[in-house]
What does this fold into?
Amino acid sequence: MKKLKIGDLEKIREKVRRTANLRQGKARAKITVHMGTCGIAAGAREILSALLKEIEKKKLNDVIVTTSGCAGLCSREPMATVEITGRPPVKYVDLTTEKIKKVLNVHIIKGNIINDYALAIGSERTH
Amino acid sequence: MQDLSLHILDIVENSIDAGAKKIEIIIKENIKQNMLVLKIKDNGKGMDKNTVAKVLDPFYTTKKTRRVGLGLSMLAQAAKEAEGDFNIKSKKGKGTTVTAKFVYDHIDRKPIGNMAETIIVLIASKGMNVDFIYKHHKNSKSFVLDTKILKKELNGVPINNAEVLNILRENIIKELKRIEVLT
Ligand SMILES: Nc1ncnc2c1ncn2[C@@H]1O[C@H](COP(=O)(O)OP(=O)(O)OP(=O)(O)O)[C@@H](O)[C@H]1O
Ligand code: FES
Ligand SMILES: [Mg+2]
It folds into this structure.
């Protein structure tokens, strides 16, 4: 069976070393996409993919993308929680790929919460 | 769920919830035998016999956030609709293997969907803590991606780095074309 071996990884390895301060504990923001069954059925994978592509495009090295399970709010999926170091988490609901890109650009990059898309601001936790 | 790649993502999320550190995703497409097999194998906390017997009941879940668990029942249903087969093997403390079989050319067999995106999303979100092995066979051709090997090759560069993910995505697509899963 052919193993996926990737020559380009070599180049990337060097490049990443030189350009980035990587994510070694320096993450400034974390985005958690909810990947429960109804989240996935409602398009959570596409939300996460769109985020990854936008992060790549904007060369953001200090943003972590992760997933969590069910958030208990099927009807508002896809959902994502944004946490910026030192501030309370914000939960965004009824996401589309366009909305999540805007969340990245307006909230994560510029620091302004988009109230129109947010569920509640306060003490929510991602598990 | 629209396609099998989304079911797979969902079943793998169960494995992640079960604390698995190594998750294998195997797809076998055999046109001669007219069969498609999906297998997701994890080394998570597993289940005892009683639990395994209950998991296909949509009203069984160990989740605290809501009272129904649908992931496994939905995949079982998808297999049934394509005159296939569904099976869970689990050992408490050892791990779980979920297998779904489908009649390949059955009119109600869901398409495989975008496996590259499912794998990339898993590596991006959990690749630092969990090792994923993805094996895809089509007839006599196959390929395998093993994040443990890739991490070694990366030699300290995080596997969830955006540029690394891009290269991985391109390579998975290239390999799926080589084995004629994608045209
Ligand atoms: N890989 C696994 N390892 C251990 N336990 C599992 C595994 N997969 C499923 N289970 C158990 O089976 C239950 C039912 O799983 P299922 O995917 O059908 O629903 P769920 O995960 O509870 O909810 P949903 O998938 O709808 O978000 C889970 O709550 C869990 O207790
Ligand atoms: S995945 Fe929708 S409420 Fe849990
Ligand atoms: Mg589940």
